[in-house]
Amino acid sequence: xxxxxxxxxxxxxxxxxxxxxxxxxxxxxxxxxxxxxxxxxxxxxxxxxxxxxxxxxxxxxxxxxxxxxxxxxxxxxxxxxxxxxxxxxxxxxxxxxxxxxxxxxxxxxxxxxxxxxxxxxxxxxxxxxxxxxxxxxxxxxxxxxxxxxxxxxxxxxxxxxxxxxxxxxxxxxxxxxxxxxxxxxxxxxxxxxxxxxxxxxxxxxxxxxxxxxxxxxxxxxxxxxxxxxxxxxxxxxxxxxxxxxxxxxxxxxxxxxxxxxxxxxxxxxxxxxxxxxxxxxxxxxxxxxx
Length: 290
Ligand SMILES: C[S@@+](CC[C@H](N)C(=O)[O-])C[C@H]1O[C@@H](n2cnc3c(N)ncnc32)[C@H](O)[C@@H]1O
Fold this sequence. Notes:
Layout: E1 4-5, H1 10-23, H2 26-36, H3 38-41, E2 51-57, H4 63-75, E3 80-86, H5 90-102, E4 109-114, H6 118-128, E5 134-140, H7 149-158, E6 160-171, H8 176-184, H9 199-208, E7 213-218, E8 221-223, H10 233-243, E9 245-246, H11 248-251, H12 254-265, E10 270-273, E11 276-280, E12 283-288
Parallel strand pairs: 2-3, 2-5, 3-4, 5-6
Antiparallel strand pairs: 1-9, 6-12, 7-12, 8-11, 10-11
The structure holds S-adenosylmethionine.
The site of S-adenosylmethionine (SAM) has 19 residues, from helix 4.
């Protein structure tokens, strides 16, 4: 059986992503960043506006989106917020809608979901000539899945209203991800479904485009101890997520499996504490000006 990209099986992708969230401080580190920095970042996005337009690109199941919206709502309690979500996974959209239905304090927020990829949205907007502008756009942990990252950033940047902000969050160049992908990217099922990029690649794109931005490092880790227990189902799912490969344990060549599992334990990727291994999941938040 040949190795294939994790994204080629969306349910499997979502299952491994949920386990990753359980085992890592991925969302906690974002929440800490939102508490400390987001109020300053969104400080003036709604000044003089009757509504605030927020665009979530790859919004997933909405956990993070609702935190962002709560921060905007706290700053602008009386203004109506339009929150549009671009998300290709029907499964994620269903969970997002359930979350919204169960939440309180969302009266002033109008949600619209678009079941499509960022490129489909871009093409639809260009065809309709309806270039709606936004006060806050975020692309959180999703740039790996677009075909042309510079073009995607350029397109969403062009949709910013004056005073708006574009937030990108992705793995940091200091993370185990960046090291793992740099070393093994060419031997993993790299195809047009997933690109191995980290903060340094995005910063290079922004520099080349002459855009102004500020970067913040978000320390985070993931407990990957299960990956070293033979036959452990969670460990296998985490390995799928780490390598972005569907059924990595069953389909990867033995030598590749052995090398990756050995490297995952090394200090370049993980820290050993109390008999457990914590993978460096540091993220980077990049805030781009209009
Ligand atoms: C790692 S999840 C991140 C979800 C959410 N932003 C978060 O941080 O919790 C990536 C999301 O991007 C979505 N996605 C994948 N390819 C995409 C594309 N081409 N355009 C927009 N979203 C995409 C996936 O369905 C998934 O929900």
